[in-house]
Amino acid sequence: MSQIAGHLEPYLVLAGILFSIGAFGFLARRNAISMLMSIELMLNAVNLSAVALGVFIPALVGQGIAFALLIIAVAAAEATVGLAIVMAIYRNRKTPLVDEYDTMRQ
Amino acid sequence: MPLPDTLPLIGITWADALFMTLGGVAIAASLFVVLGRDIIRNGLMLILALGALAGIYVMLGAAILAGAQVLVYIGAISVLILFAIMLTQSKAAAAKLTFQTQAIPAALIALLLTIIFAITLGTNDWKSTVFPGTPEPQGTTSTAAELFGPYLLAFEVVSVLILAAVIGGIYLAAIPRAGQIGAEDDEEVR
Q1: pLDDT 10s digits, A36-57
Q2: How far is B9 from chain A (nearest CA, A)?
Q3: Residue of A nearest to B51 (CA)
Q4: What is the Rg, in whole angstroms, of the alpha carbon atoms belonging to chain B?
């Protein structure tokens, strides 16, 4: 009988750690693409917790995986539009660093 | 020769060892994504973290989701991110400051988030709701029943959303031709 992998909590702990790492990256990085990568990390952490809950809780069997599939699809759409916006801004401003996007600053 | 039940010398089961390895790889690669200086390597480490998470999905018995993770995240999104990195990287960018000036408050906020997660996990009684033992691997039948039953509307809305995102992405990233909206603004830059 496995001590760690057969319980729900370790998966939720891992998801929490990954989400915190992603949140730090989103707040701290200067590069817009790094921020998008951090968002992907956070979405994956949410996916992991959804799947773990869907697998371990009898009332949610099947729902967790279905929900995670929908999240993956929405993440793909978000990445497409986000990277296109970064490319469009880069064409005008010649920099991917977000703190140099200060046109609208008063 | 049959394998022993636990790892030799350490005494932990194979499933635990696999979970700890995959989880450790995921955390280490995520930290590299967030803290690393070279953004190309950050993108490659993102692929490693997503692959480790796909392995954890397989451990949880969600093989269909692991397949989707490999196809969509590793195959499509990571390649898109790597292309965007290569298109926007300048020679000076790596030498410049990687983090914002607010990096220390950001670290404090992330730490606070971790503490909130730990408190939430610690105060909840999971034992009463979860399966008593290790759950069986799920087939795709229960997932399909949910996806095409209660979540059918969400499924259809997501497909329309992806279509809109693809069209929007092409419109945003395309170089405007003469006579199109936005073409005049670009003339002076180029």
Answers
A1: 999 999 999 999 999 988 888 8
A2: 16
A3: A44
A4: 23
